[in-house]
Amino acid sequence: MKVIAIIPAFNEERTIEAVISKLKQYVDDVIVIDDGSRDQTSQVALQNGAKVYCHVINRGLGGALGTGLKAALLNGADVIVTLDADEQHDPAEIPKLIKPIIEGEVDAVIGSRFLIRQPMPLFRRMGIPFFNFITFLLFGIKSTDSQSGMRAFSKKAAQNLEIYARGVLEASPEILRQIKIHKLKLKEVPIKSIYTPYSLSKGQRFSPGLKALIKLLILKLSK
Amino acid sequence: MTLIQILAIFLASSILIKTIFDFKKNKITLPVFLLWVILWSAIIVVAVLPQVTVFLDKLLGKGRAFDAIIYFSIFFIFYILFKIVTRLEKIEANITTIIREIALRDKDKK
Question: Which one of A14, A104, A200, B104 counts the least CB within 10 Å of its CB?
Answer without folding.
Answer: A104
